[in-house]
Amino acid sequence: MRSIAQLLGHSSTSKLLIIHTDDLGMCHSVNAATFAAFEAGAVSSASVMVPCAWFPEAAQWVVQHPQYDIGIHSTLISEWKAFKWGPISRKNHTANLTDEMGHFWPRNGLLRATPQEIEEEIVAQVMQAKQAGIHPSHLDSHMLSVARPEYIGSYMKVARRFGLPFLIDEHWHAYSSPDDPATAKDIVVNGLFQAGPQVSTASLEDYYLSVLRELQPGLNQLIVHVGFDGAELRAIMQDQQAYGAAWRQRDFEIVMSEKFKAALREHYIHVVNWSMLKPFVQSARHEA
Structural domain boundaries of the chain? Predict the structure, then answer.
C-alpha cells in the first residue's frame, strides 16, 4: 500500500507537515490573525468553531477565499469564564451536555453526553457550516473532547457521513469502537504536535523549532493558536497564560517569522493540508 507521501507525489521517506491553527470563529482577534497567517502563507490549515459568536465573520471570509483549507473544529466545550457558547442542535439539552445556563461545560471531565448527543451536535455544526457556504476539508476536535473511547466512534461516523478526513493519531486510533472502527482506509496522522500548558510563552519558539528539527517521515500536524494580543483577547482570556492572549500573539509571530520558514526549508519539510488528502478519503469511501 502506498503511503500518504507517495499518494501526494513525494517519496515514502518524505516529511509532510500540516501547519494548522485552531479556533477560527471564536472571536474577531483570532479571525483577523488567522486571515493574516493564511494570506502570508504561514499556516496551511485551520478549523472553525461553528457555535461561537464570530463564526459569521469567519464564514464570510472563507466563502470569499475558497483557496484556503478550512475544517470543522467540532466544539463541545466552552472553556473561558466570561465568554461562552453552547449547542446548536435543535433539541432540549440535558446536564450531560450543558450547564444550567445552557452553555457547554468548561472542561472535558464535566462532559457526560451520550454518544448519540455527541453525534447529533457535531452533525448540526457541520450542517450549519455547509449552509453558510463552507466546504469543509476535514473534521477535528476542540480540546480533543472526542478522544475518549465512548465518543470517538460518533466523531468518525459524522466524518464518514460527510466524506471528510478526520484528525486521528495512533493513540486515538486505539480508542476506536467495535461499532465504527478506524480502518486502513482512514488517514492517520503519524505525529501530532501541540505546545502544552507546561510550555511558557517565552519558550514557544524553542518548542516549535524543536518539533521541526526532530520531525519524522510521514504525515504530521503542528497545531498552533494564533490571535492578536489586544483588549478583546485579554478580556476573554483574562489572566490565562496557556493559550491566552500573549501566547496567541507569540504563536502568530513565530509562524510568520523567517526563522520558522527557514527551519522548514532546512529540514526538508513539505507543507501540506487536508484538502490535498480529502480526495483519497472520498475515493476510499467510493471503493468500499
Answer: 4-287
Mean pLDDT by 10 residues, the chain (288 residues): 81 96 98 98 98 98 98 98 93 84 96 95 98 98 94 94 89 62 75 96 98 97 98 94 96 98 98 94 52
Cα torsion angle, 273, 278, 284, 287, sign: negative
To the question of domain 4-287 being in CATH 3.40.190.10, the answer is: no
Query: How much is the pTM?
Result: 0.94
Q: What does the block give as the cell for 82?
A: 466570561
Which residue, among 201, 252, 194, 208, has the nearest Cα to 227 in the 3D structure?
A: 252
How far apart (Å, rounded) are the C-alpha atoms in residues 41 and 56? 23
Q: Which of 123-142 are b and which e, b meaning 16 or more Cβ less than 10 Å from the residue's Cβ? A: bbbbebbeebebebbbbbbb
Pairing of strands 191-194, 218-224: parallel
